[in-house]
Here is the input.
Amino acid sequence: MATTSSHALAPTAPLTPSNRGWSKPKRIEASQWLAYVIVGVGALIMFAPFYFMFVFATHTNTGILSVPPPLWFGDALGENLKILLERLPYFWQNIGWSFYVALATTALNLFFCSLAGFAFVHLEFAGRALLFKAIMATLLLPTFVGMVPTVLIMGWFGWMNEHRALIVPGACGALGIFMMRQYIGSSVPKELIESARLDGCNDFTIYWRIVLPLIGPAMGTLGMITFIGSWNNFISPLLVFRDMDRYTVPLALRALQGTGQTPWGAICAGAAIAVLPLLALFVISSRRLIEGLTAGAVKQ
Amino acid sequence: MAELSLRKLRKVYKGSADAVLHDIDLDVRDGEFMVFVGPSGCGKSTTLRLIAGLEEISSGDILIDGQSVAGAPAAERGIAMVFQSYALYPHMTVAENMAFSLKMAGESQQTIQSKVGKVAETLQLSSLLDRKPKTLSGGQRQRVASGRAIVRTPKIFLFDEPLSNLDASLRVQMRLELSKLHKDLGTTMIYVTHDQVEAMTLGSRIAVFNAGRVEQIGTPLSLFHHPENQFVAGFLGSPKMNFIDCEPIARNAGGSTLRCGNGVVSVNFHVTQKCVLGVRPEDFAISTESVGFCVRIDVVEQLGDAVIAYATPVDTHTTIVIKLAPPASQLRINAMLWVHPRPGSAHVFTEAGAALTQLTDLSTERDADYAR
Here is the structure.
């Protein structure tokens, strides 16, 4: 039988965090603590409205307006949904319209912005730099400045109370063009374009067959930004629509206010339903969104 | 296969007063492997891009088989180009990359498959057809880029430094493959490089570019042995040719005697003005007597097949490079030696750089023989 005598063993070093296989926790400096606290408070401030929207969706008006307000979920969700659908008979249709407008705006915005971005990077034409500066200058204008002229133009076209009055003005934007120009400039080499030209492609074929498949991350980012912006858009539908059955969701929820007692629980339930698609979209593709937002920031 | 002619080709970029190409006249023969070589920014790649139709010419003409193509779109010139970065479409497989131009030309699926398959077999790419470019090695990507060009059966191939992204051993291998490819296809090829070894080994003829001008066109050996100017002499050869300022100090019936730094050489023709003596490092020999240049060895590099020494002629601040076959035991740091150009190997240039002549029987004289 094999035995092991203790004196035959090599002397062992005392156990320290490093030779135990784990490292000593890193000391956090005071400045880092401060940064964490600021970020934490910021996150709390941003997260609180979301949380209370879901909490209030499960409480009646009495509970919501009590002091202190409820901090945890209640049992009035069914009741609130019932009020919501009674007061907004077109609610599901409104959600459908929101999807339609957001999807159409996003698709057109992606197409036109990427096309413009490609042109600004890879095509030579007179006034290219000036035109780009002019487009960028529009970013300096507050959104509301363009609102009245846009509504007037839609009126001249006879598009009032129609969804295309939201889709067409949102089909291309300076921010999207800027994003696409930056991304295409940094991720689609000139040689690929030249190679495609030698292979017999015209400008549009180069865009469609070469550029478009290579700008997925930027398209994803811009797509999400546009979709979220369009989904949450309140002012433009307010100016364009007259009939409730054509409303988008934000406008429809606003319609719950102002007729007698405001059903806050129902509004929060409606808002919670309306925000779910965006949350799902964000959770699925947040990584890509961040990738896209930082694209071109550093040399890879 | 096709002939290419450049006539007074000039390129001035918008917003710039200076031309990057100055009236280039050049003929590339049918089936020839022409290499454009020169330092960075000399205009060789610009010339290639003008030929390809990727940039517009400012004036002059480009003729393919006698027909002007200066105004024709790139795709209609019958030219295929292999880029330095290979420019493979990253979202397409190897097969799709190779088939793309045929697809754009409206070829049938059957024709595309047949042509791609045949070229892939020739370039040993058959097993890689379903792979994306990012999964390929540098050499494989280079072959795919070549295959993509071959599949179009162009009249002229253009190569823009296609081997510069490869490591040294792969570059040698790919150089051989390109050479074989030219032999097999017999198509006119124009190859741009700044690597003189590639130029010397691949080219049927070489055009040496400098500052937007063609300095000299000729076969590799003719350029090496008979450079028309100091730039060509200095550009070809590694290590580069030594240039030593000289002045005539005596004239005799057979020629002139020149003082070159601390050395004295005689030439078999009359020199009446200051000039520059050009000697390739490998054309120096160690003198057994006190003739030629007295030098102190500063640095010695043992390359295995050669020994290179960097030496300073005494009483000067210049450096000359000497390359000898091993063992060259005399080449030791701080050793003082006499070296002289081998007869018939040195060149003389005017101060402006034009070749006066290559010396046919250059002789060196004992320093003591020279009456100071």
In short: The two ends of chain B are 63 Å apart (CA to CA). Chain B has eight helices and 22 strands. Residues 4-226 of chain B form a domain with the Rossmann fold fold (CATH 3.40.50.300).
